[in-house]
Amino acid sequence: xxxxxxxxxxxxxxxxxxxxxxxxxxxxxxxxxxxxxxxxxxxxxxxxxxxxxxxxxxxxxxxxxxxxxxxxxxxxxxxxxxxxxxxxxxxxxxxxxxxxxxxxxxxxxxxxxxxxxxxxxxxxxxxxxx
Length: 130
Description:
Radius of gyration: 18 Å
Helix content: over 70%
Distance between the termini: 39 Å
CATH superfamily: 23S rRNA-intervening sequence
Oligomer: single chain
Shape: elongated
Structural class: mainly alpha
Number of helices: 4
Number of domains: 1
CATH topology: de novo design (two linked rop proteins)
């Protein structure tokens, strides 16, 4: 998956959550959880876009770590909606699946970037010692 496709997926997640939050019951628990869910889900795409514009590999890794945290937090709020019986798991199944995939792809990207950074550091070290 390329950068633009992942940007589209993270924005799609945010849009789906925006629509979901609009359908939640009008009570205190739903409103509080809904606001938290909305913040974390919209943050996923915003931080991924920021990662794409990172100024250094360390900056990109830092921003991707935020993407991972926010996506995982999004899962947490959805789990609370289900476990508090505000919304059924069946209704959230697709959204949960998409969010889990975003977490997994982000973790894989972080691991790849770290491995590449390590290879570059090892190569630099080797060159300096020759």
